[in-house]
Prior knowledge:
Layout: E1 5-10, E2 13-18, H1 29-43, E3 50-54, E4 59-61, H2 66-75, H3 80-90, E5 96-100, E6 103-105, H4 107-114, E7 117-120, E8 125-127, H5 130-133, H6 141-149, H7 151-158, E9 164-165, H8 166-169
Parallel strand pairs: 2-3, 3-5, 4-6, 5-7, 6-8
Antiparallel strand pairs: 1-2, 8-9
Helix pairs in contact: 1-3, 6-7
Keywords: Isomerase, Peroxisome
InterPro entries: ClpP/crotonase-like_dom_sf (IPR029045), ECH/Chromodomain_protein (IPR051053), Enoyl-CoA_hydra/iso (IPR001753)
Subcellular location: Peroxisome
Amino acid sequence: MSELIQTGTQSGVLTIRMNRPEKKNAITRDMYRAMADALEAARNDDAVRAVLLCGGSGAFTAGNDIKDFIAIAEGGTRHGEVHDFLRAIATFSKPLVAAVDGLAIGIGTTILMHCDLAYCSPDSIFRTPFLDLGITPEAGSTLIAPKLMGDQRAFALLVLGDTFDAATAR
């Protein structure tokens, strides 16, 4: 397990913590692999009854590590780790809960859409910068967001890139 992803189980709850505070928990390929592996192990472990995803104080995650993804594109390699993680959260059959304090940007916001429940501090901020990056929304977010928040809010989030806080998300 990557030290950038810390895991531990207590009272039947597996905690998966992103631990890269100097980069606001920007997610790398290795972090995706570690989280995918942890979710797959939890899926098959009867002692794990639920999973908690979290970051540190001030940042759930700032999104994908752009330098890491540029290196992938330049190297012509596939994003297998990312797809494995997204498949794992999209098909996870046990309760999946997120604890958010601070930033949940890009994939951070998308991850929350796949969770059964997200607890957010009043300081939490959500944004999907797809427009700024010139990319399409990821991981089924165009399907899930309208169901969770309605068409207009989903459009503002995914297409316009509007930022919103925990009070608005509520």
